[in-house]
Design a protein that fits this description.
The structure is a single chain. This protein is α/β, with parallel strands linked by helices and 344 residues long. It is 40% helix and 18% strand. It has 13 helices and twelve strands. The radius of gyration is 20 Å and the shape is globular.
Length: 344
């Protein structure tokens, strides 16, 4: 992974353009991907707080609802949700002078919001750590798959521009790093990441309070949903190498599901000895299933997601989707994951 000096060297031209974009106050709109996670919201609010502090007019527009366990972050109360307030969001976008696209590599990742974005003839900046970015969606692309998270990469870019994140920004960036690395359990072996964490701590963040908000403030309904998923729905296949959990729309309703309630669930089966792939399927509506994938070691689960579920992501952490029934999605997994692991 690269350090700050490498960011300055590798993205010299991009940082020069960013310096020009940020040189005078502008109306800047920041977009995360749909179904935003901690890294997406952390990066958006990290930049929101930094740019507000230097005089810009900044608004974050999320394609859909922000998970409840992320709404405590500084600035989250001002996020506009496109799915529930399209008028306000569209009006703001029409007045924007610069777009900042964070934690996604393709406009398809913002859902219906992409149709509005494509009509705008204003500069776009894309900062992301996912592989295979679409280079056509922005004038400035800062992409580094070696970064643990978009929050880590954002911190490096901020420093490269001469910004020193204050405590509000630091809280958000630290939160994104913790959620995207599973509290430093994966994608977190580079010493440079820990130097960044040290700087965020030096900014005055209360790490214990952040961890409580992110990981230890579950609702009763979420706790029961997690218990149901692990106790009743966990299945093991492929000679004990693969675990999957398939949750129907009815089960989600039964346990009063809210966005973010299944966050981290896909990681849990990997703690079982012998399991190298974990898959979570959630039926969001009839005929549509969202999938999350995790793997250990050299198993490139993003390749599997891309091949069978129109997905992608990182080597050990990916997402996908399936048009059809939950049972059919499970059938695809059961018939393909074994041969995939065996190299067929």
């Amino acid at each position: 992974m690269r350090l700050k000096d490498d960011i300055m060297e590798l993205f010299r031209n991009e940082l020069s353009l960013l310096t020009k974009y940020f040189a005078h106050p502008q109306k800047i709109t920041i977009l995360p991907h749909k179904d935003p996670d901690g890294d997406a919201i952390g990066a958006c609010l990290g930049w929101y707080n930094v740019l507000i502090a230097v005089g810009h007019d900044v608004v974050v527009i999320s394609p859909d609802e922000v998970p409840e366990n992320l709404r405590w972050m500084p600035g989250a109360a001002h996020i506009v949700t496109f799915s529930s307030d399209k008028g306000t969001a569209s009006d703001r976008l029409a007045k924007s002078e610069l777009l900042l696209l964070l934690d996604f590599n393709d406009l398809k990742r913002v859902g219906e919001l992409a149709n509005v974005v494509r009509t705008l003839d204003i500069p776009r900046v894309n900062i992301d750590h996912h592989p295979y970015p679409d280079t056509a969606i922005s004038q400035v692309l800062i992409s580094d798959t070696g970064a643990s998270s978009t929050c880590e990469l954002s911190f490096r870019v901020m420093k490269g521009l001469g910004y020193k994140p204050g405590i509000e920004s630091a809280v958000c960036l630290y939160s994104g790093i913790m959620t995207d690395t599973g509290m430093l359990n994966h994608n977190s072996s580079n010493p440079g990441l820990y130097r960044i964490i040290a700087e965020l701590l030096e900014a005055g963040i209360d790490k214990d309070s952040i961890h409580k908000e992110l990981f230890h403030s579950n609702s009763l309904s979420r706790t029961r949903l997690m218990g149901h998923a692990l106790g009743n729905k966990l299945q093991v296949i492929s000679s004990g190498r693969v675990a999957y959990i398939a949750l129907s729309a009815e089960e989600l309703r039964m346990y009063e599901y809210k966005p973010g309630d299944t966050e981290g669930l896909v990681n849990m089966p990997l703690s079982v000895k012998g399991i190298v792939v974990s898959i979570l399927l959630t039926e969001r509506k009839e005929g549509f299933v969202k999938l999350s994938f995790r793997s250990r070691g050299g198993i490139a689960i993003n390749a599997y997601s891309t091949r069978y579920f129109s997905g992608g992501g990182h080597s050990n952490a990916a997402g996908g989707e399936f048009v059809g029934s939950l049972d059919d999605a499970v059938s695809v997994i059961c018939s393909t994951i074994g041969p995939f692991l065996d190299g067929d």
